[in-house]
Amino acid sequence: MTDQQELLELAIEINSLLFGNFQLSSGGTSSYYFDGRILTLNPKGAYLTAKCLLPIILNSGATYIAGPTLGADPIVSSVATISFLKNSPVNALIVRKEQKEHGGEKMIEGSFSSGSKVAVVDDTCTSGSSLFHAIKAIENEGGEVVKVLSILDRKSGGSKKIIDDGYDFFSLFVADDKGQITCNL
User: Fold this and answer.
1) Which residues is 144 bridged to in the sheet?
2) What CA–CA distance (Å, rounded) separates 161 from 66?
3) Interstrand relation of 91-95 and 64-68 (parallel, antiparallel or unpaired)
4) What is the pLDDT of residues 24-66, one digit of tens each?
5) Closest of 64, 161, 47, 50 to residue 113, by C-alpha
């Protein structure tokens, strides 16, 4: 069993991925619901997520991983930790929803310099709006986005928009129009 398959099984086991009839915030309905935070805040889930994402990030040439708060916070932290243990450090950045109005007035927490190569991640890609928010924040600070990642791609238009805008996108899991979730091997 691959790490991705083990992560998908864990998501179902700990009720991070549920099947049934669910109302979405967009107003639509879905035959499944994925709460990525349940998965990435679980010790084994955090470890497996980081273990799956780290090789992809390193292959992209990124030395930073960033994502929108709240969904990406545990992901960027676990990837940074695992990268240190593997002696291939990837620094973590967190993109705020809004620019801080006091102190350093930061939009991005963490420290990176213009020209740095960054992988942007979120737990789920639906419309892509959270990922685009993080991408634009990184680019506005002079970072180069070399990879865009999610744990689950709902295939609701977001990943297509990201790819159409010229970004290299990959998700660990993919949903089809019937609500089947599979590993994106």
Assistant:
1) 117
2) 19
3) parallel
4) 766 778 899 999 999 999 999 999 999 999 999 999 999 999 9
5) 64
Q: Are 120 and 138 in contact (CB under 8 A)?
A: yes
Q: Residue 10: how many CB atoms within 10 A of its CB?
A: 18
User: Which residues of the chain, if any, have pLDDT below 70?
Assistant: 25-26, 99-105
* DSSP H helix total and E strand total for the chain: 6, 9
Report the candidate in 106, 98, 50 with the shortest Cα–Cα distance to residue 75: 50
Residue ranges of domains in the chain: 3-183
Angstrom distance (rounded) from CA 80 to CA 108: 16
Quickly tell me which residue has 């450090």 as its tokens. 89
Q: Which residue is it, tokens 């959270």?
A: 130
Q: How many Å apart are CA 172 and CA 147, to the nearest integer? A: 13
CATH number of 3-183: 3.40.50.2020
Q: Which position has the token pair 């499944």?
A: 32
Burial class (CB in 10 A: 0-12, 13-18, 19+), 87: exposed
Q: Which of 169, 172, 100 is nearest to 137 (CA)?
A: 100
Q: How many CA atoms lie within 13 A of 128 on its CB side?
A: 20
